[in-house]
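Reopening this one. Same input as before:
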Amino acid sequence: MSLDITFLGTGSAYPSPARGASALVLRREGQCWLFDCGEGTQTQLMRSHLRAARITKIFITHLHGDHFFGLPGLLCTLSLQSNPEPSKPPVDIYGPLGLRSFLWRSLELSHSQLLFPYTVHELVPTRDQCPAEEFKDFSGLDGDEAPGRGPPGRVVHLDPGEDSYLLVEDEQLVVRAFRLFHRVPSFGFVLQEKPRPGRLNVQKLKDLG
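Same output, byte for byte:
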Protein backbone atom coordinates (compact mmCIF):
# COMPACT_ATOMS: atom_id res chain seq x y z
CA MET A 1 0.00 0.00 0.00
CA SER A 2 1.48 3.32 -1.06
CA LEU A 3 0.71 6.57 0.78
CA ASP A 4 1.64 10.02 -0.44
CA ILE A 5 1.01 13.29 1.42
CA THR A 6 0.65 16.76 -0.13
CA PHE A 7 0.26 19.90 1.98
CA LEU A 8 -2.11 22.33 0.26
CA GLY A 9 -2.26 24.84 3.12
CA THR A 10 -0.66 25.28 6.50
CA GLY A 11 -1.79 28.82 7.36
CA SER A 12 -4.19 29.76 10.12
CA ALA A 13 -7.05 32.28 10.41
CA TYR A 14 -7.15 33.16 6.69
CA PRO A 15 -5.38 32.36 3.41
CA SER A 16 -2.67 34.60 2.01
CA PRO A 17 -1.43 34.98 -1.59
CA ALA A 18 1.45 32.62 -0.85
CA ARG A 19 -0.01 30.33 1.79
CA GLY A 20 -3.33 28.54 1.91
CA ALA A 21 -5.44 27.81 4.96
CA SER A 22 -5.40 24.34 6.48
CA ALA A 23 -5.67 21.48 3.96
CA LEU A 24 -3.77 18.27 3.38
CA VAL A 25 -4.26 15.46 0.86
CA LEU A 26 -3.36 11.83 1.44
CA ARG A 27 -3.14 9.91 -1.82
CA ARG A 28 -3.82 6.21 -1.47
CA GLU A 29 -4.33 3.62 -4.19
CA GLY A 30 -5.45 6.20 -6.74
CA GLN A 31 -7.84 7.92 -4.33
CA CYS A 32 -7.36 11.25 -2.58
CA TRP A 33 -8.41 11.80 1.02
CA LEU A 34 -8.64 15.45 2.03
CA PHE A 35 -7.98 16.52 5.62
CA ASP A 36 -9.48 19.96 6.36
CA CYS A 37 -10.64 22.35 3.67
CA GLY A 38 -9.90 25.97 4.47
CA GLU A 39 -10.67 28.83 2.10
CA GLY A 40 -8.72 28.62 -1.15
CA THR A 41 -8.23 24.85 -1.02
CA GLN A 42 -9.58 24.33 -4.53
CA THR A 43 -7.17 26.99 -5.85
CA GLN A 44 -4.28 25.17 -4.18
CA LEU A 45 -5.50 21.92 -5.73
CA MET A 46 -5.33 23.50 -9.18
CA ARG A 47 -1.71 24.48 -8.52
CA SER A 48 -0.81 20.97 -7.43
CA HIS A 49 -0.29 17.73 -9.34
CA LEU A 50 -3.44 16.28 -7.77
CA ARG A 51 -6.82 15.74 -9.42
CA ALA A 52 -9.70 17.04 -7.31
CA ALA A 53 -12.04 14.56 -8.99
CA ARG A 54 -10.21 11.75 -7.20
CA ILE A 55 -11.28 12.99 -3.75
CA THR A 56 -13.39 10.24 -2.17
CA LYS A 57 -13.18 11.11 1.53
CA ILE A 58 -12.95 14.39 3.44
CA PHE A 59 -12.06 14.69 7.12
CA ILE A 60 -12.68 17.94 9.05
CA THR A 61 -10.81 18.33 12.34
CA HIS A 62 -12.97 21.07 13.87
CA LEU A 63 -15.48 23.78 13.05
CA HIS A 64 -13.26 26.83 12.94
CA GLY A 65 -13.69 28.58 9.60
CA ASP A 66 -10.08 28.29 8.48
CA HIS A 67 -10.51 24.52 8.52
CA PHE A 68 -13.80 24.09 6.63
CA PHE A 69 -15.07 27.29 4.97
CA GLY A 70 -13.73 26.03 1.63
CA LEU A 71 -15.84 22.88 1.67
CA PRO A 72 -19.12 24.04 0.03
CA GLY A 73 -17.21 25.72 -2.79
CA LEU A 74 -15.03 22.69 -3.37
CA LEU A 75 -18.08 20.40 -3.57
CA CYS A 76 -19.72 22.72 -6.10
CA THR A 77 -16.57 22.81 -8.24
CA LEU A 78 -16.33 19.01 -8.15
CA SER A 79 -19.94 18.89 -9.31
CA LEU A 80 -19.24 21.23 -12.24
CA GLN A 81 -16.39 18.95 -13.31
CA SER A 82 -18.34 15.70 -13.07
CA ASN A 83 -20.99 13.87 -15.05
CA PRO A 84 -24.13 12.42 -13.45
CA GLU A 85 -23.46 8.79 -12.60
CA PRO A 86 -26.32 7.04 -10.74
CA SER A 87 -24.00 4.26 -9.55
CA LYS A 88 -21.20 6.55 -8.37
CA PRO A 89 -20.36 5.97 -4.69
CA PRO A 90 -20.85 9.00 -2.41
CA VAL A 91 -18.07 11.25 -1.20
CA ASP A 92 -17.77 10.49 2.52
CA ILE A 93 -17.32 13.53 4.76
CA TYR A 94 -16.35 13.13 8.43
CA GLY A 95 -16.41 15.91 10.99
CA PRO A 96 -17.84 17.23 14.25
CA LEU A 97 -21.54 17.39 15.01
CA GLY A 98 -23.06 20.37 13.17
CA LEU A 99 -21.21 19.80 9.89
CA ARG A 100 -24.20 18.13 8.21
CA SER A 101 -26.49 21.09 8.91
CA PHE A 102 -23.85 23.59 7.75
CA LEU A 103 -23.34 21.84 4.44
CA TRP A 104 -27.01 21.21 3.77
CA ARG A 105 -28.00 24.81 4.48
CA SER A 106 -25.06 26.28 2.51
CA LEU A 107 -25.96 24.27 -0.58
CA GLU A 108 -29.71 24.80 -0.13
CA LEU A 109 -29.48 28.58 0.29
CA SER A 110 -27.15 28.91 -2.71
CA HIS A 111 -29.42 26.70 -4.87
CA SER A 112 -26.49 24.37 -5.47
CA GLN A 113 -27.37 20.94 -6.82
CA LEU A 114 -24.52 18.45 -6.75
CA LEU A 115 -24.26 15.90 -9.54
CA PHE A 116 -22.85 13.30 -7.17
CA PRO A 117 -24.02 11.94 -3.81
CA TYR A 118 -22.31 12.77 -0.54
CA THR A 119 -22.71 11.56 3.02
CA VAL A 120 -21.81 13.34 6.26
CA HIS A 121 -20.70 11.27 9.22
CA GLU A 122 -20.79 13.38 12.38
CA LEU A 123 -18.63 12.76 15.44
CA VAL A 124 -20.36 13.55 18.72
CA PRO A 125 -17.88 15.43 20.94
CA THR A 126 -17.61 15.25 24.70
CA ARG A 127 -17.83 18.30 26.91
CA ASP A 128 -14.22 18.02 28.07
CA GLN A 129 -12.84 18.80 24.58
CA CYS A 130 -13.00 22.56 25.06
CA PRO A 131 -13.49 25.15 27.81
CA ALA A 132 -16.91 24.72 29.41
CA GLU A 133 -18.12 28.17 28.33
CA GLU A 134 -17.29 27.43 24.67
CA PHE A 135 -19.14 24.11 24.39
CA LYS A 136 -22.31 24.22 22.29
CA ASP A 137 -24.74 21.34 21.87
CA PHE A 138 -25.52 20.98 18.16
CA SER A 139 -27.45 17.73 18.51
CA GLY A 140 -30.80 19.42 17.66
CA LEU A 141 -29.68 21.30 14.54
CA ASP A 142 -31.25 18.86 12.10
CA GLY A 143 -34.60 18.72 13.87
CA ASP A 144 -36.34 21.39 11.77
CA GLU A 145 -35.18 20.07 8.40
CA ALA A 146 -37.63 18.15 6.23
CA PRO A 147 -37.02 14.40 6.58
CA GLY A 148 -34.88 13.01 3.78
CA ARG A 149 -33.75 16.39 2.46
CA GLY A 150 -30.38 16.58 4.13
CA PRO A 151 -27.48 14.30 3.26
CA PRO A 152 -27.44 10.82 4.78
CA GLY A 153 -24.72 9.62 7.09
CA ARG A 154 -23.92 8.17 10.49
CA VAL A 155 -23.75 9.80 13.89
CA VAL A 156 -20.62 8.36 15.50
CA HIS A 157 -20.26 8.21 19.27
CA LEU A 158 -17.11 7.71 21.30
CA ASP A 159 -16.20 4.08 21.92
CA PRO A 160 -15.24 4.18 25.63
CA GLY A 161 -13.27 0.95 25.39
CA GLU A 162 -11.03 2.25 22.59
CA ASP A 163 -11.33 5.92 23.65
CA SER A 164 -11.77 6.74 19.97
CA TYR A 165 -14.25 6.84 17.08
CA LEU A 166 -14.05 4.11 14.43
CA LEU A 167 -14.57 5.76 11.03
CA VAL A 168 -13.18 3.53 8.29
CA GLU A 169 -11.99 -0.06 8.14
CA ASP A 170 -11.02 -2.16 5.15
CA GLU A 171 -8.63 -4.98 4.42
CA GLN A 172 -5.57 -2.73 4.59
CA LEU A 173 -6.14 -0.08 7.22
CA VAL A 174 -8.24 1.40 10.00
CA VAL A 175 -9.05 5.10 10.43
CA ARG A 176 -9.97 6.34 13.90
CA ALA A 177 -10.64 9.78 15.32
CA PHE A 178 -9.31 10.84 18.72
CA ARG A 179 -10.46 13.71 20.90
CA LEU A 180 -8.31 16.83 21.09
CA PHE A 181 -8.67 19.86 23.36
CA HIS A 182 -9.09 23.22 21.63
CA ARG A 183 -11.30 26.31 21.88
CA VAL A 184 -13.96 24.23 20.13
CA PRO A 185 -14.19 20.41 20.13
CA SER A 186 -11.53 19.04 17.81
CA PHE A 187 -10.43 15.67 16.50
CA GLY A 188 -7.21 14.13 15.32
CA PHE A 189 -7.31 11.36 12.74
CA VAL A 190 -5.08 8.29 12.84
CA LEU A 191 -4.56 5.92 9.91
CA GLN A 192 -3.24 2.58 11.07
CA GLU A 193 -2.07 0.02 8.56
CA LYS A 194 -3.11 -3.52 9.43
CA PRO A 195 -0.36 -6.11 10.01
CA ARG A 196 0.61 -7.95 6.87
CA PRO A 197 1.69 -11.58 7.28
CA GLY A 198 5.20 -12.23 6.05
CA ARG A 199 6.17 -14.92 3.56
CA LEU A 200 8.94 -17.40 4.32
CA ASN A 201 10.69 -19.77 1.95
CA VAL A 202 10.54 -22.82 4.17
CA GLN A 203 12.79 -24.97 1.98
CA LYS A 204 15.51 -22.32 1.88
CA LEU A 205 15.37 -22.02 5.68
CA LYS A 206 15.81 -25.78 5.95
CA ASP A 207 18.71 -25.71 3.49
CA LEU A 208 20.39 -23.04 5.64
CA GLY A 209 19.88 -25.16 8.73
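So the earlier flakiness isn't reproducible anymore. For the record, The mean pLDDT is 92.
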